[in-house]
Design brief:
With 424 residues, the protein is an alpha/beta fold. 38% of the residues lie in helices and 14% in strands. The protein has 14 helices and 16 strands. The structure holds pyridoxal-5'-phosphate (PLP).
């Protein structure tokens, strides 16, 4: 195979697609070089257009929990496609998927299927504002809830900040009612707050598990002022436990955002919760929300195929794989004399360079600043292991990652860590 295909594609891509990518997280801006263009994928592996094979720890940002091209998903999608790809009318598989989600998630009676996590979070906030008649939304620095205007506010400071715009094109008015607070500290709320939205395990600033009492404290603070608690479980839902983080930590939110795993690798996400809140949505209630491709038959077929295979034992298996992987990578970094953290939360793990444990966005930014992650990323990629091209992401294992893949990854990490240490 011609080894120049990737570079040729990259040149074509940057000419016609802004930055060459259809989502900024795919760019290699913070690690350097050209992104690999995927030709095909199978289980734990990706093959790029030049024929290079990688053990893949991106797995579509966690959407592929079974691994790529799982036969059950491929068959379900193919057979659904043969019956038509979209109708704009309800189908049985939407009902079946909603029932499955409701049965798995504590306190979830009703589900609205949407096409992306962005829409799920946007809709959850709109429901909360509709339910309370209040405007204010509290989010946490470093938590990602998609790219809707109101949720694109963040803050690097340790002090809660009112509405700082994080993107051009977002009017100040759109984030005026967004309050950003530091993760892992329960903010003081008042009766202007419609909702608190949080990733119950933060996985968009590296991996930061909730401090003991944090989620319980949020539940209590919301109850005291009559605000809704929204768990954005787009990553954690059906990934860290048979249900979700709420089940694992024993704290029940009013609304859930789900996505990634639940769509089986197709564009599907969901907002879910108690009937009283969910029935505020149109057409029964006054809160409007809609979608041409919402509950798409290919996506529901894929989601159902995946959820049917996710019994409790699957999470034990994934948790063991992740524990072995994290211990191996942690050992490799320590042996090379690199100060680093490899936090683990159930089936998720991440890598932070630096001596101090990371508990919030400030810490994550500090860990990312040294540039070691970029060096480690490149050294791993050169050895056939594809990590996320950013220090603010986590590692996603799939059920297709077995002993062989973990051993290969730890061997690569051992050599890569020495290379990073030598470059210092
Ligand atoms: C990925 C993600 C989203 C956004 O989902 P999209 O499908 O990319 O719009 C929202 N919240 C969290 C926690 C996510 O990880």
């Amino acid at each position: 195979m011609c080894a120049q295909q990737n570079s040729a594609l990259w040149a074509r891509a940057t000419a016609v697609i802004p930055g060459g990518v259809n989502s900024p997280v795919r760019a290699f801006g913070s690690v350097g070089g050209e992104p690999y263009f995927v030709a095909e994928a199978d289980g734990a592996y990706l093959t790029d257009v030049d024929g290079n094979r990688y053990v893949d720890y991106v797995q579509s940002w966690g959407a592929s929990i079974l691994g790529h091209a799982h036969p059950a998903v491929v068959d379900a999608v193919a057979s659904a496609a043969a019956r038509g790809t979209t109708y704009g009318a309800p189908t049985e598989s939407e009902v079946a998927l909603a029932e499955m989600i409701a049965a798995a998630i504590p306190g979830c009676e009703m589900v609205r299927l949407v096409s992306s996590g962005t829409e799920a979070a946007m809709t959850a906030v709109r429901i909360a504002r509709g339910a309370t008649g209040r405007d204010r939304v509290v989010k946490f620095a470093g938590c990602y809830h998609g790219h809707s205007d109101a949720l694109l506010a963040s803050s690097g400071s340790g002090v809660a900040t009112l509405g700082r715009v994080d993107s051009a094109g977002v009017p100040a008015g759109a984030v005026e009612a967004t309050v950003v607070a530091p993760y892992n500290a329960v903010p003081v709320l008042d009766e202007r707050v419609a909702c608190v939205i949080v990733e119950p395990v933060a996985a968009n600033m590296g991996l930061i598990p909730p401090a003991p009492g944090f989620l319980q404290g949020l539940r209590r603070a919301c109850d005291e002022v009559g605000a809704l608690l929204i768990f954005d479980e787009v990553i954690t839902g059906f990934r860290i436990a048979p249900g979700c983080a709420a089940a694992r930590f024993g704290v029940q939110p009013d609304l859930y955002c789900l996505g990634k795993v639940v769509g089986g690798g197709l564009p599907l996400a969901a907002v879910a919760g108690a009937a009283a809140a969910m029935e505020l949505l149109a057409p029964v209630g006054p809160v409007y929300q809609a979608g041409t491709l919402a509950g798409n038959p290919l996506a529901t077929a894929a989601g159902l195929a995946v959820l049917e295979l996710l019994g409790p034992s699957v999470y034990d298996e994934l948790e063991r794989t992740v524990a072995t992987l994290a211990a191996g990578i942690g050992g490799a970094l320590a042996d090379a004399g690199l100060a680093a953290q490899v936090p683990v939360c159930s089936t998720l793990c991440g890598v932070f360079f630096g001596a101090a444990p990371v508990t919030d966005y400030e810490g994550a930014r500090h860990a990312a600043a040294g540039g070691d992650y970029a060096r480690f990323f490149r050294a791993m990629l050169a050895r056939g292991v594809a990590l996320a091209p950013s220090p603010y992401e986590v590692m996603f294992c799939s059920l297709a990652h077995g002993e062989r893949e973990v051993e290969a990854t730890v061997a690569a990490a051992t050599a890569a860590a020495r290379e990073v240490a030598a470059a210092r």
